[in-house]
Amino acid sequence: MDLFPNRLQLESREAARNRFRFYEMVVERDLFGTWCLVRRWGRIGTRGRARTDLHRSPEEALDSLADLAGRKRRRGYAVRHDKPQA
Known about the structure:
It holds the Pfam family WGR. The protein has one domain: q64v53_bacfr protein fold (Single Sheet).
């Protein structure tokens, strides 16, 4: 596991409140070389919505990812762990 991952997948599941949400973030370069933080969110099982934020450096994009991850964790999101396939 990377100390500073460039991809993060979070989930929030509360059956009692009928809440099944995902939030994904990835830091990458676009076709023009600009660093981007791409975010996707929505209800689990749907395509969801997306937003791309442009940054001047990979460090700035990773700082933004870390800040957003902290905010999402405070709102009940947890890191998604995929089940191993048999």
